[in-house]
Task: inverse folding
């Protein structure tokens, strides 16, 4: 099986990618290959994903897959956006980030709480690949007023999914992977990779 590096150390993302790519690729993480992170200085999800993919490929010598994703909230003019992982200040503090969004949204009325998770996935064969595969997908929902559910990670406990009438954190991994921004982007990427 072909080895590919996922430009992430986020355990939740690694779990999701491994589940979706099982049987096609042997996915390794940055820590598995001693790859150091690179500053995410892009202004868009695509730019950051490309920066991360090229860095991981250069340091590991493997084809690389990177995603940059986050939540885009209309009432907050698109925030947290590319700063989703560090919205409250510390990178990867899901609890603090979620609390900050709930505080920022406390005066926003029902019906005006629309949001979407957004995912940009980039695949490069090598660090200087001039034709990276770039896929973007969104997942529409609303911001709840309190946390619900135990599954998932990040903003899942406050993201309401109307077709299931549940928070994302109440969905099974299989349900989430079928409809989420990352799940849809990965499905599209797999079609591209097999073309």
Result:
């Amino acid at each position: 099986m072909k080895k590919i590096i996922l430009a992430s150390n986020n355990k939740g993302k690694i779990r999701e990618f491994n589940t979706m790519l099982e049987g096609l690729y042997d996915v390794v993480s940055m820590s598995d290959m001693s790859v150091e992170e690179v500053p995410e200085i892009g202004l868009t999800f695509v730019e950051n994903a490309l920066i991360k993919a090229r860095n991981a490929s250069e340091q590991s010598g493997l084809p690389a897959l990177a995603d940059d994703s986050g939540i885009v909230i209309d009432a907050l003019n698109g925030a947290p956006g590319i700063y989703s992982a560090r919205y409250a200040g510390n990178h990867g503090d899901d609890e603090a980030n979620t609390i900050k969004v709930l505080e920022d949204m406390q005066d926003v009325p029902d019906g005006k709480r629309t949001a979407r998770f957004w995912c940009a996935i980039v695949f490069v064969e090598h660090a200087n690949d001039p034709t990276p595969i770039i896929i973007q997908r969104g997942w529409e929902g609303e911001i709840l007023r309190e946390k619900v559910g135990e599954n998932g990670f990040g903003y899942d406990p406050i993201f309401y999914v109307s077709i299931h009438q549940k928070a994302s954190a109440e969905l099974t991994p299989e349900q989430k992977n079928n409809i989420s921004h990352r799940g849809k982007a990965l499905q599209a990427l797999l079609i591209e990779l097999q073309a």
Summary: The mean pLDDT is 93. Helices lie at 11-21, 45-60, 94-104, 173-179, 181-194. The first strand starts at residue 2 and ends at 6. Strands lie at 2-6, 25-29, 64-73, 114-124, 133-143, 159-161, 166-167.
